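User: Um, what's this?
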Amino acid sequence: YLACPYTARGMIGITRKHVEHSRFLKITDIAGQLTKKYGCPLICPITTSHMLAERMKKLGDPLGTEWGSWKEIDTAFLTKSDYMLVALMDGCWHSVGLQAEITVAR
């Protein structure tokens, strides 16, 4: 399970969207590198959830980006995972979702 902060709390509009998209790109790059280098099976919720949320938003049926929107799904993945990796990036220690994921993983 590969995790990172995602939601840009306190930001609005284009700035928030830019930060969230940037985090999506960074974590997806990391997931790709880990998969290529180590061949380990991993789930990176941000990689799939970001694309799903963006698509549903365009269809007029938004899913949300907050932890509450993904808590049940991410918890299911975490409970099936053997380990959790955290990508350290800006916002890591203030991310409600990431801190909750760490708590579930423990």
Summary: Strands lie at 2-3, 85-86.
